[in-house]
Write a structure and sequence with these properties.
6-stranded mixed sheet; 16 strands; Antithrombin, Chain I, domain 2; 9 helices
Length: 433
Amino acid sequence: MKPFFLKTNRNAKTVENLFVLSVFIFCFSCISGEENSPSGKVEANLRELSLDENRLSESNTRFATNLFQQLVSNGDSKNLFFSPYSIHQALAMAMNGNDGEVLEEFIQVLQMEGMSLEEANQAVKDLTSFLLEVDPKVQLSIANGIWYKEGYEVRIPFKDAAKHYFSAEIAPLDVYDPNSVDIINHWIEKQTDNLIKDMLDIIPEDAVMYLVNAIYFKGDWTYNFPKENTRKEKFTLGNGQEILVDMMNLGESAGFKAYGTSEYTYLEIPYSSEQYSMGILINESGNLSELYPHFTLENLTEWRSNPRDVNLILKMPKFKIDYRIDNLSNDLQAMGLVRPFSFHKDNFTQLFSNPTDDLKISRVIHQALIEVDEKGTEAAAATIVEVVETVSLPPDSTPTIFTLDRPFIFFIQEKHSGAILFMGKLENPLEDD
């Protein structure tokens, strides 16, 4: 059994309270709080997941944690937000244009070892359908689009796979027309409820295909934060500096799932029917570099499988993050996807039926936005894979107040499958104001 620590202040009295709290959780089952009942809770549309769906969900989660570790490896202390599900799905579409050793690189980086291409594609289709239907009160859309250079001929098997497994819209594009960039941008805006705008800057003349994924999420908290409870309160940055932020406050006790050790606390903040939740990983120091080594698939599986039921009066900051990655190529190459980013005769051999010069991925652009307030969370993201041609052309019954008043890692996840749709880190709630 693991002790569970909740740090809310940095004084001796708090340490004493935390010790008492950990003893209670060590020894007793939780007594559910009744003060703050779920608002508009509905029953989830659950079904048993297939073996391949479970394998794909694990692949998605492992890819998510690996990519997160890669993105934070530069030690940047700024906010971060992205959708690993969107990136995973866009690359999975691109994977279908390859075979041989290049296909194997995609499979390894996307953590799909042991699955055939057909099994992986079917699992993508089935898991996406499950995520879209599991909670009728959560707004979720996942869309795919493919544009190819006018005059080129897309192979029928690739086109069929894109349509059947990814429900992708496929259309030719005049890459020489400067206005063509608006076609892709307007599609992304529409799919993300106008949150992601003007994402694609230019279309180079050597571009032959764009594979695009867009994802949109909007969910109300199971326990809404009353707006009148929001106050200016202190938030301590990783460097120790204190700033004033809009701190939301439930005001009444509510039940949460949590897991903790002396080094960190994991907390799930549920949406709607509790199938979707925002996972939080926080420590006492606020130094996120100390948390990164703990954020692994294995630990996440343990936290999800063996949480404690706790009663808390939760306080957390309102925040908004608008984040863009101009090119993920270096990060993906560091993770093992190397060949597709250099011109090579073996790249994308299953993409076009007409002869082409050597192809490569020139850019993987990603943009994501999240806004968290008293009612819930709205988030959106899009991923563009640009392919170009070489130019030859138990707690105490007294509720604990738990305040997220220092930097933390967060992610939006679905409980039954374990899939992670969005993730990031909040270093400074005022950074994107």
